[in-house]
Amino acid sequence: MDVIANQLFAGLSMASILLMIALGLAIIYGAMGVINLAHGEFVMLGAYATWALQTYAGIGILPALPFVFISVAAVGWIVEKVVVQNLYHRPLDTILATWGIGIILQQAVRLGVGAESRFVKGPDLLSGNTEIGPLIMSNYRLFVIVFSMAVLAATWMLMTRTEFGMKLRAVIQNRAISECYGIEAKRIYSVTFAYGAGLAGLAGALITPLFSTIPTMGTGLVVDAFLVVIVGGLGSLIGSAAASVLIGEATAIFSIVINDTLGRIAVLAGIILLIRFRPRGLFPTETRR
What we know:
It is found in: Cell membrane. This protein is mostly helical. 73% of the residues lie in helices and 3% in strands.
């Protein structure tokens, strides 16, 4: 039971990372219908930005978070303006273009800082563990869980309680009509894409004390994040939250019962079965473009 409890906690912390990555994907797809295959590279850029700030500027991971968000969001804004904006309503071209952008970003990092693993020191403030009975919880992983919940709440507030969110929902429902009312759809798209990229950068920053930082680190993470978005329902924030916990904990449980490889296969089989009977996910959203 001790092992199971601690493994479930580890699964929950990983689910929190997946949630922040998936939120960016869900927002970008829900608003623009864009399948962004470069999203994993935004995670990687966030990780390398954190490493660079700590290595060259002496800035710890916690104070670096705002800088990471802004810098990766700026990269996302440029990508949307230069490439993605010209490919709306051309889904295949968008997939190929973002895939190519991802390769370019990976190679740029390899040329700039090398392909060897980089490591980021966790914050001293969050070192150590918290013990509750048999459960031993890393303070840093607890912070990651709480931070991801705060990001989810902030994103929900942004989308449902602000003028920007109202305009975004209008563009999602009907771009042509919303533009007739003076809403600049292109500007809304650019800000939305940048925000989603910034969330991926935050996830990359937070994962650096847990995993080594390498140019290809975002590839596996973005696959899991896509699964979260598909299971939760394309464009659904609540669905992404529920699916991230479901997938993260299912992976943790199966890893204990069998092993990591077979556990992964079992989770994928379960996702395929779910999609077979609920092809639009657990919390489908209605959109019109």
